[in-house]
Amino acid sequence: MNADSPRKTLSVDLGERSYPIHIGPGLLDDGSLLRPHLAGRQVMIVTNETVAPLYLESLKRGLIGGAESDLDVRELILPDGEHTKTLASVERIWDALLAAGFNRRCTLIALGGGVIGDMTGYAAACYQRGVAFIQVPTTLLSQVDSSVGGKTGVNHPRGKNMIGAFWQPRAVLIDTATLKSLPARELTAGLAEVIKYGLIRDLDFLAWLEANMAALRELDDALLIDAILRSCTIKARVVVEDETEQGVRALLNLGHTFGHAIEAHQGYGNWLHGEAVGTGMAMAASLSRRLGWLDDDEVTRVTTLLEAAGLPLAAPSEMDAEAFIERMRLDKKNLDSRLRLVLLRTLGDACVHDDTPPTLLDEFLRDYPRT
Ligand SMILES: NC(=O)c1ccc[n+]([C@@H]2O[C@H](COP(=O)([O-])OP(=O)(O)OC[C@H]3O[C@@H](n4cnc5c(N)ncnc54)[C@H](O)[C@@H]3O)[C@@H](O)[C@H]2O)c1
Ligand SMILES: O=C(O)C(=O)C[C@@H](O)[C@H](O)[C@H](O)COP(=O)(O)O
Ligand SMILES: [Zn+2]
């Protein structure tokens, strides 16, 4: 591969469990990138009813390659939507594996967005106490975030991602051409997680995003590949530092304490994950201002960039301060009765903070703008 090739590969370095992230246009039907990571001949592709008609055949063609292939490739097509990210859907994956007679050397391939990736990874983590899986993410959000790092799981009506496991994929294959069919609203949702990386760790990346947001939304190929590469590089570094979120990995949760509260409160329906995280990051910036950490200009930089990406800033009108607090009490980051929030000491430098005075938080939640 020459240096100018649009194809890039980086590695998540976890010793014996290290894996590559391949990024570039048209990778989906390049079976040579996937076949080395299969555990055996049994392969189950898990996808959904929206993605299957677009990309399933191409992935299968690449995997099977010539007529001489001895792979046993099956597929499971699930319904679409965040509300389907449940244990019942994961049971359907286990049923399909058992019905196919798949053994411990099978490989699951997640073809789709973060919902399919999180559920397939969790199914793999538990099936016969753990089998191989590969991520083939097809949304911007899943390409820059959910396919990397091994957080797998499902939602509970009371709280987001409450049931799950850390289970790393064997490889991540990011075909950037799949973004051409992604609805604009989903692209915007993915941009929230991209902006997150700039805010928590990389001020240069934040400035780059400010300069290039319009072109990214126009699907400029080279810029998108750059944004995905930079995002995956930051995420991979954080995951390598702290795979199971004992410390620094919690920073990847910027905006998520508020965001997950919004998603759970509205029943995993109207708001997309990225939209809730976008609003959650605006809320985190505003609370950081109240604590005297950010100044007004810095908060304006955050909100201007989120707006330029097309993300909502206002919290849902049906959520009052009590509703936020009640939902946030269930957040997985909390270790005792105090709420642990990811806030911004300055732009490009996030921290976990469990010392926000309850009255200040309450006032902040009452005052924060609503839709
Ligand atoms: N595991 C992690 O580290 C992690 C990180 C971030 C988010 N998540 C989870 O990821 C989920 C959100 O992921 P998402 O934003 O990808 O949502 P999603 O999986 O629901 O996909 C969004 C929509 O786009 C459709 N779609 C997917 N690819 C497409 C394509 N190429 N063309 C057209 N349509 C396409 C899907 O069918 C769906 O309707 C949430 O459940 C969130 O909690 C997990
Ligand atoms: O990989 C991580 O770590 C993240 O926190 C990434 C988040 O963008 C993602 O939404 C993740 O699923 C949140 O995890 P949770 O543990 O807060 O449920
Ligand atoms: Zn997220």
TrEMBL record:
Cofactors that this protein relies on: Co(2+); Zn(2+); NAD(+)
Binding-site list for NAD(+): 80-85, 114-118, 138-139, 151, 160
Location of this chain's protein in the cell: Cytoplasm
Pathway info: Metabolic intermediate biosynthesis; chorismate biosynthesis; chorismate from D-erythrose 4-phosphate and phosphoenolpyruvate: step 2/7
Domain 3-dehydroquinate synthase C-terminal: 190-334
Gene Ontology biological-process annotations: amino acid biosynthetic process; aromatic amino acid family biosynthetic process; chorismate biosynthetic process
Keyword line: Amino-acid biosynthesis, Aromatic amino acid biosynthesis, Cobalt, Cytoplasm, Lyase, Metal-binding, NAD, Nucleotide-binding, Zinc
GO cellular component, one term: cytoplasm
Ranges where the 3-dehydroquinate synthase N-terminal domain occurs: 76-188
Catalysed reactions, semicolon-separated: 7-phospho-2-dehydro-3-deoxy-D-arabino-heptonate = 3-dehydroquinate + phosphate
GO molecular function: 3-dehydroquinate synthase activity; metal ion binding; nucleotide binding
EC number: 4.2.3.4
CDD domains: DHQS
Protein family per UniProt: Belongs to the sugar phosphate cyclases superfamily. Dehydroquinate synthase family.
Function recorded in the entry: Catalyzes the conversion of 3-deoxy-D-arabino-heptulosonate 7-phosphate (DAHP) to dehydroquinate (DHQ).
NCBIfam families noted in UniProt: aroB
Annotated protein name in UniProt: 3-dehydroquinate synthase
Source organism (scientific name): Modicisalibacter muralis
Gene for this chain: aroB
